[in-house]
Amino acid sequence: MKVLLPGGTGHVGQLLRRAWLREGHEVVVLSRHPRPYGDGTRVVGWDGRSAGPWTREVDGCDLVVNLAGRSVSCRYTPENLRAMMDSRVASARAVGEAVAGARRPPRLWLQMSTATVYAHRFDAPNDEADGVLGGAEPGVPAYWAYSVRIARAWEAAQREAVTPATRKVALRAAMVMSPERGSVFDVLSRLARAGLGGPVAGGRQYVSWLHGADFVRALDFLRTREDLSGPVNLAAPHPLPQRAFMRALRAALRVPLGLPATRAMAELGAWALRSDTELLLKSRRVVPGRLTEAGFTFTHPEWPEAARDLADRRRAGR
Q1: pLDDT grade for 74, boundaries at 50, 70 and 90
Q2: Which of 66, 89, 242, 302 could tie 203 with a disulfide, CB 3.0–4.6 Å?
Q3: Structure pTM?
Q4: Residue 70's CB: how many other CB atoms inside 10 A?
């Protein structure tokens, strides 16, 4: 199988690249700053928005997984929010045009999306059938609605591409957890070890997550299921409140205590980390309805066990 990974230089792209190389597949990464990996991966340059020599890689490939988009780990200034929107929509449109113009188009185009598309809520989980899309919740910062608009425009760019020979799936992914440096798990682990792993603003907000191994397995599962297209939630089946999520993480890391943080303290910490409190405070209660109904089984369905596995892998990696 030949796999094309636009924007595949980030944490999630590296998980996929390494897994599929181990299985003997050909992997091509599209990057704005191409550099060799030295492991058989081909890296091809692109600008993320316009056609170029990179489009030849689409012709004849089996699978495209578009991961391109400006990182959300930044301050949510108007400039950065526009960059998030523009980079996601432009790259999805560029991929769609390349797929549409290919003589031998790929059978499947997996487009990264986000669980942030769902509403901030505590009362019930969000699945693909009955979930409430966000953007109109009372009592939340107005700019949270822009994050939802980004997600919806991102998905629309894929949905509107005219690619009759290519099945399309939008991956509404929760936080993907792996032990590698720079991952979400790495950042949260460092905070917990610094004594900052307690509840934030009371800790009622739900955290949706997915073990990296199950993320790779879910994409392999989607390759085999010709009946699945459109939005698919990529999240473990048991989201949990942030206070319980961090308690389990501290236990896995053998950290006995975590200081609680008020909303104001969280805002100060996010500013210091050049990030935004939406990542901490929005309640993302997302469940994998379509995956579960299709028969996918999770290797790591519960967070306490998944956290122990990730912590053990991290210690072994050192």
Answers
A1: confident
A2: 242
A3: 0.95
A4: 19
